[in-house]
Amino acid sequence: MPQTETPGTEVALRPRPRWWTELPLILLVYGCYSAGRLLARGDVSGAVDHGLAILRIEKALHLNAEHPLNRLFTREPWLGVPADFWYASLHYLVTPAILVWLFRARAPHYRAARTWLLASTFIGLIGFTLLPTCPPRLLDAGYGFVDTMAQYSSYGWWGGEASAPRGMGGMTNQYAAMPSLHVGWALWCGVLLWRHGGTRLAKVLGVVYPLVTAIVVMGTANHYLLDAVAGVAVMGVGYLLAPPLMRAADRLRTRLSRPAAPVASRTGSPIVSAGCQTSAGERIPRQRDSRRGPAPGPDAPAADAGEGAPTAAR
Known about the structure:
disordered C terminus
């Protein structure tokens, strides 16, 4: 038997997001992220110590994916150059493209995905602030890493300092390696392509894009393996925080949009019946009196005077 909703209990549909509110919000959050990332440079010696500590942890765990990948990308330009282009550009292109695609073609899923991305990005900013980390490419050459972006800088628009355009390397924080939001954002894109792409190609891209990004960030010596793991963990925490954040935003929006209670006028009484109440079978007050006609006179029989009339004494 089909179930029916009790009237008055339906959940109000959320309004469709509007681009003129979403675009400034995303630009504002990204601007805050970029400014905070730039300001949270930290002490260089401390960042180097953190990078070396990560290497020691990986060595204790018998993890060493960065060195062989970096040697491969350094030795083979046909791998190293595309990898540098991948690292320097795709996260600026693919992530906004997925947002726009969700907004236009998968609107019911857009708000949750956007909240997930923004929450994870802010968590990453906290990581950059509390744990500035020197990437492998900036360690002493004795540790065996080569900066492929500096090696192949003549092929692209970036300079030898960072993935920023030439001459703008000083405007980015090169010690923001932990966590790797390149990997985190790529994972976000991959999950959404897998869940909402709707085609086999989209699912394949949803798997390939984050995996290749993880290989690229290590092969170009921009991140450690544990940076990539931390990027995945940050996205996991952001995914868990997204629903309560949306509920809090809904409560705040409801509270701000709630109309003010009407104020009773002091000049007139709000009681339209002037204190009269209706009885059973009446539609308006005093209806019973109008139906009975004029009050009985003194010569009327006792029976006609009503049930409550006193009986004459004998």
